[in-house]
Amino acid sequence: MKVDVFSLKRQYEAIKVEVKEAVEKVMQSGAFILGQDVGLFEQEFARYCGVKYGIGVNSGTDALFLGCLACGVGKGDEVITMPYTYIATALGISMTGARPVFVDIDERTYNIDTSKIEKAITEKTRAILPVHLYGHPADMDPIIEIAGKHNLKVIEDCAQAHGALYKNKKVGGIGDTSCFSFYPTKNLGAFGDGGMVLTNSEEIKARLLLLRDYGRKGRYEHIEKGYNSRLDTLQAAILRVKLEYLDKWDENRRKNARLYTKLFKESNIDLVLPYEADYAKHVYHLYPVRVKNRKEVMEKLAEKGIRTLIHYPIPIHLQEVYKDLGYRKGDFPVSERCCEEILSLPMYPELSEEEIRYVVEEMSKVT
Ligand SMILES: *Cc1c(COP(=O)(O)O)cnc(C)c1O
Fold it and tell me: Is the C-beta atom of 181 inside 6 A of ligand 1?
């Protein structure tokens, strides 16, 4: 049997007819840039998250970059986030000229350890940027409280958490702005790059509309050195079709995760399983486990046709590109340890029970 870590094929088979219709409509209209589907998808996705405004952009990275800029983050500022995330979280901050400042993670949820945030705040801190990593929401209440006390903005990185709930509220509607990616393998993925920033603030929305479209006001006037970062109309049309299925897909991910967890618990395999906090509805963008002999496990599974991946092997503070920040090995021990042990098992909504059983069975032979 072959089991891929994720696959988009089965999903496409299920929605092919609707997607082709939606794409055909855009092609016929000829309105490829900021066409009708962009505005409609912005409204629909913002409503889905319980937020007033959605601004479609090029990618999740640009959503972070422009979201930070629109919150007033710039050169000389510091933004607090965690080193245990995809590099784009930090790049979005750096692109504004600001400096990412790291705080270690909580070992169970793999999200920012809120008890360590205040120690990282300085005169230059402008914002806190939690990541809802793997689809598990960060503990937002303490973050909002700390931000309020120190007059900081809160920018959510929701790239892995479309539909996740924090205390029964959708992530993306809790901070000042939130940033989504529609990279194809995300819980809600386009057929190419795409992203969105959400906000309840009229002012932040207005700034984002300028920033993504050459700083343009009307047709010919430019009042800000903006960028070209718009959600493509074809992608928006496809995303509108897919949004209708997001809840069902997230539920399937949860069902798959429950089965993995049940089987692993029954099997006495020595590994750390994903955790779901009381306040959280996890949407399992990934199903990461921790094993001591990761290299061996990956190789053995690969021999059996099971592909796994590592999210992420190197914490950002030890990445070459961020040497200039001056961090050292040992600065964030929890992140560093998790980077050495974490392993993503196959996870996507259409994964079958038989495939999950096969993965667990093969895991039991090597751990
Ligand atoms: C995917 C991802 C991003 C970047 O999104 P792109 O659309 O690929 O630019 C940012 N942050 C996290 C946590 C991600 O997983």
Answer: yes
Average pLDDT in the 307-323 region? Answer: 98
- Nearest CA to 318 out of 309, 308, 310, 327 is that of 327
Q: How far is the CA of 269 from the centre of ligand 1 (A)?
A: 32
Residue 92 Cβ < 6 Å to ligand 1: no
Q: Which residues neighbour 20 within 8 Å (Cβ) at sequence distance 6 or greater? A: none
The Cα–Cα gap between 209 and 267 comes to: 53
What is the distance between the alpha carbons of residues 164 and 122, in angstroms, rounded to a whole number? 31
For the CA of 131, the nearest atom of ligand 1: 13
Residue 156 CA to ligand 1 center (angstroms) comes to 12
Round to whole Å and give the CA distance between 64 and 41: 19
Task: Output the DSSP codes for 249-271.
Answer: HHHHHHHHHHHHHHHHHHHT---
Ligand 1 in reach of 111 Cβ (< 6 A): no
195 lines ligand 1 (CB under 6 A): yes
Ligand 1 atom at minimum distance from 61 CA: 9
Backbone angles phi, psi at 69, to 5 degrees: -55, -45
CB 54 within 8 A of CB 205: no
pTM, entire model: 0.98
Ligand 1 pocket check for 131: Cβ under 6 Å: yes
Its sign, for the CA torsion 260, 266, 272, 275, is positive
Ligand 1 in reach of 178 Cβ (< 6 A): no
Which pair of structure tokens corresponds to residue 101?
A: 């400042």
Per-residue pLDDT tens for 210-235? 999 999 998 899 999 999 999 999 99
